[in-house]
Amino acid sequence: MLAGVNDEEALRAINEVVVDCRACPRLVAWREGVALSKRAAYASETYWGRPLPSFGDPGARLLIIGLAPAAHGGNRTGRMFTGDRSGDWLYASLHRCGFANQSRATHLGDGLRLTDVYIAAAVRCAPPDNKPTIVERDTCATYLQGELQALEAVRAIVALGSFAWDACLRAHRALGRRLPRPKPRFGHAAEVDLGSYTLIGSYHPSQQNTFTGRLTAAMLDSIFLRARATLEA
Predict the structure, then answer these.
(1) Which domains occur in the chain, in start order?
(2) What are the pLDDT digits (tens) for 85-130?
(3) Which residues contact 84 (CB under 8 A, 6 or more apart)?
(4) Residue 38 class from Cβ within 10 Å (0-12 exposed, 13-18 middle, 19+ buried)?
(5) Global model pTM greater than 0.90
(6) Which among 105, 162, 186, 197 could bridge 82 via Cys, Cβ 3.0 to 4.6 Å?
């Protein structure tokens, strides 16, 4: 199958709408409240405090989907998986697997560049306790749907956690695309052919998973090496 060409103008337009979104009152209040109260370690910093745009190579063939920004990570720095422990794990793995030019992501302007990778999230605002409501989840879903349409060159999607896995399947179906039956179940290294791209599941690199050993660096690397093999097939 010949790869398509990503619609970079559409991706930029989606990001412009995302950063100004105020559709979910609870999330607006939470993200802005966190940006004002701050964490003591970041008391001198100006928090982003808005929805996060997607980030990466606009020509990407690999899409990574997370759950939502961390309150003192992306909600502080203004970039997906930047300034928190989950991002430390994610970008270190992407660097080892040849998708990133460096292993750390600390702030905007830190020099991080991704190659062949675009990073999005199911929900674009930091939610209380990392738990968006169903209404918030569904309100945000149109952004991912638009990105799936615009990312015509994407041949592999890595879903970080079951929430992102389900969000991808819902977006795929909402676009009128076929889903296998029964519904594909999430699992680490679970894989399903969705036609133009392959969906691959990975445990989320949250501290809950990395501190307990449920997710190791080797396990995360194996996911991105599998994604690379899919792109090169």
Answers:
(1) 8-232 (3.40.470.10)
(2) 999 999 999 999 999 999 999 999 999 999 999 999 999 999 999 9
(3) 70, 72, 73, 74
(4) middle
(5) yes
(6) 105
